[in-house]
């Protein structure tokens, strides 16, 4: 009995000492962070950031950043309190993404933020691991058979689920959240493409999916880590398993169990001859955790970005019916009076106005509004900005689309014609339009994503009229890894006359 009491006392003492040490170490680390980060900075910009006083004038943080970048003579600003240099200068973007690529990796701070969710996936690593996954993904995603497979998945989802859902509410004054519809649509597609699994999120009943909900929560709470003034705040919460960190852990557990179940099932049934990414990668990778990280990364990239891009595009169409009419005219001119529900690859290549309209939408509302790297060594940007080793540097596609010196005096207008010359699409410099990144990290799935968006746009506007009820307000975004409209996009549908 005495030995049990002694053991309990020893255990209690050990726990007390451990947590006391952890607390003291965390406080000490926080003090060091404060001293190094200048959290007391009294400059106008830093005070506005710390007190969130910018909210009085701007609906979105990205709009405040845009305002500051427009006022800057170099198109670059410095938020001292978070050690972040933000730029909307294309020359700087090219320097970071191409000319000095090796000096600007994702960096350990970024990898830590998304490490629990993405692990060693391609979007969260640098160096040899990134090169290996990049080469492997390039071989897989660049193949004609893979693209044809992705096209078939998208067509099937549109024909069997998206159009029947929209038809079921058309003409009934029933408001549908188009953002939610597109998130469900893209999640079904990317799960089929990545895992060979159909979660059925876009069935007529719009069912709940434990995997989709866990994925949403994991993305949301991972993004919230980046909004903390100090990484110590979320690290202490994770250590103590509190609040959002506890919820993040639970959500990731669901993702891990699901991924492992899919891997085990594929090993049992065999993966040769299958077209999904998991099966393709399993032929060369035998580490289950690594497989999980790779496929979850593709889920993140292929789901939220496409849904965000489609949501913004249809919001813009409701504000600019002349653009919708021009797309419909082009569709009729290229496809003719054919009863075919979908345009072919070759026919879509001939639709230059559609392509221009999509890119113009992405210019104004990029799904990923900003992206950050960390300087490995001291450097000087082309505009003269000095970066000390370890400094975070962020390029801001959302702001770049609103810079007069980049896009001209009409930069705030939705104007597909700026991408056309003699009615032919003319590409722009990737470093003034880094929506799909640029340089060595340019998005490998860009063509697949753009084709998916085109298929949806053509199928929907061919058959339905869309209206946003009530007042049309400027978009307000929820903070996150991708641009998500606060409150969704409520719309009404009306079937067009045959």
UniProtKB/TrEMBL annotation:
Gene3D superfamilies xref list: Cytochrome P450 (1.10.630.10)
Entry similarity comment: Belongs to the cytochrome P450 family.
Pfam family, one: p450
Transmembrane segments: 12-35
Residues bound to heme: 443
MF GO annotations: heme binding; iron ion binding; monooxygenase activity; oxidoreductase activity, acting on paired donors, with incorporation or reduction of molecular oxygen
Transcription regulation listed as a keyword: no
Cofactor(s) required, per the database record: heme
Keyword terms of this UniProt record: Heme, Iron, Membrane, Metal-binding, Monooxygenase, Oxidoreductase, Transmembrane, Transmembrane helix
Protein name listed in UniProt: Cytochrome P450 94C1
Protein source organism: Hibiscus syriacus
